[in-house]
């Protein structure tokens, strides 16, 4: 019984209520008023002859009363069963609702847990992505800086090599220039020496011719003593023409000096070498005029 009460308390409650209602109705239908009996008076017993038909009626009434009570009991049982079934259905519905609520709560908790797990995984993935991007950025920056450093080092090396090459080239060119200058100087010196030699040879060769021609055009002044001489400077132009003549060192006799100047002018043009390159050595010549007697 206690197990039934624990399993279906609502049905038991309905059954108790129905019994209380029936008990109240029964108490209301009974006549509880006491009959007054006079003291010392005996209540006579009334007897009534009952016929067979009346017995049948009484039996029928009893049968009807029994059927009514049975029907009432059946109705009560049905009502109790309906109440019990309803309570069971409600309990089952409540249990199902509770089960559904628990399932929904579990599903919600699982969904929330999954959501949190997804968020955590997403956050982890985002953190890893950011970390990877930062790492990639750092690596890219390092590679860029390394490439820039290598490029700068290569450029510095290239410039240093270029400077060294240019310096070597400059030094080589300077050495070559110095060598060329030395060779040119040597060549010029040799040429100058050769030219001086040729000029000295030409002067040695042509001065006597010049002196001879001047002497042929010279007239000794009257009264001029013998043994006089003077140093004469003569300026010429190409072809041997005399531009000017002057006595550089006088003989001491002005008449003699003027006669020499006159002779130089008369002797123009003076003889010169055929090589025009030697003329610069004859542009201005100094020689000593000494008639000899």
Describe it for me?
Strand 1 (230-236) and strand 2 (242-249) form a beta hairpin. Strands 2-1-3 form a three-stranded antiparallel beta sheet, covered by helices on one side. The longest helix has 165 residues, at 52-216. It has 293 residues and is mainly alpha-helical. It is built from four helices and three strands; from the N terminus they run αααββαβ. 70% of the residues lie in helices and 7% in strands. It has a domain at 217-289: Fusion Protein Consisting Of Minor Coat Protein, Glycine Rich Linker, Tola, And A His Tag, Chain: A, Domain 2 (2-Layer Sandwich), CATH 3.30.1150. Helix 2 (9-29) runs antiparallel to helix 3 and helix 3 crosses helix 4 (254-267).
What are the key terms here?
Fusion Protein Consisting Of Minor Coat Protein, Glycine Rich Linker, Tola, And A His Tag, Chain: A, Domain 2, three-stranded antiparallel sheet, mainly alpha
- As an assembly, this protein is single chain
Sum up the overall morphology in one term. Answer: rod-shaped
Low-confidence stretches: none
Give the number of helices: 4
Q: State mean pLDDT (0 to 100 scale).
A: 78
Query: What's the CATH architecture of the domain at 217-289?
Result: 2-Layer Sandwich
* Secondary-structure element string: HHHEEHE
End-to-end gap: 193 Å
Give the strand line-up of the largest sheet: 2-1-3
Proportion of residues in extended strands: 5-15%
Number of β-strand runs:
3
Q: Which fold name corresponds to the CATH topology of the domain at 217-289?
A: Fusion Protein Consisting Of Minor Coat Protein, Glycine Rich Linker, Tola, And A His Tag, Chain: A, Domain 2
Q: What's the helical proportion of residues?
A: over 70%
The CATH C-level class name of the domain at 217-289: Alpha Beta
């Amino acid at each position: 019984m206690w197990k039934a009460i624990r399993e279906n308390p609502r049905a038991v409650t309905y059954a108790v209520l129905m019994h209380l209602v029936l008990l109240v109705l029964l108490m209301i239908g009974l006549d509880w008023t006491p009959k007054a009996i006079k003291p010392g008076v005996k209540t006579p017993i009334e007897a009534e002859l009952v016929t067979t038909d009346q017995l049948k009626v009484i039996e029928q009434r009893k049968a009807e009363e029994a059927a009514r009570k049975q029907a009432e009991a059946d109705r009560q049982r049905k009502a109790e069963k309906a109440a019990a079934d309803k309570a069971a259905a409600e309990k089952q519905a409540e249990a199902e609702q509770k089960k559904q609520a628990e399932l929904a709560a579990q599903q919600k908790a699982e969904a929330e847990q999954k959501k949190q797990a997804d968020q955590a995984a997403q956050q982890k993935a985002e953190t890893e992505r950011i970390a990877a991007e930062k790492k990639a950025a750092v690596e890219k920056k390092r590679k860029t800086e390394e490439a820039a450093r290598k490029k700068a080092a290569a450029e510095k090396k290239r410039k240093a090599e270029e400077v060294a090459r240019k310096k070597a080239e400059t030094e080589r060119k300077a050495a070559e220039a110095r060598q060329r200058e030395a060779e040119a100087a040597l060549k010029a010196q040799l040429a100058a020496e050769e030219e001086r030699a040729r000029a000295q040879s030409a002067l040695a060769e042509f001065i006597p011719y010049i002196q001879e021609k001047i002497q042929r055009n010279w007239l000794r002044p009257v009264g001029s003593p013998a043994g006089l001489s003077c140093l004469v400077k003569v300026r010429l132009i190409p072809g041997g023409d005399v531009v000017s003549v002057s006595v550089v060192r006088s003989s001491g006799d002005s008449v003699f000096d003027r006669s020499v100047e006159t002779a130089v002018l008369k002797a123009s043009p003076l003889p010169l070498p055929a090589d025009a390159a030697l003329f610069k050595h004859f542009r201005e010549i100094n020689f000593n005029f000494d008639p000899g007697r």
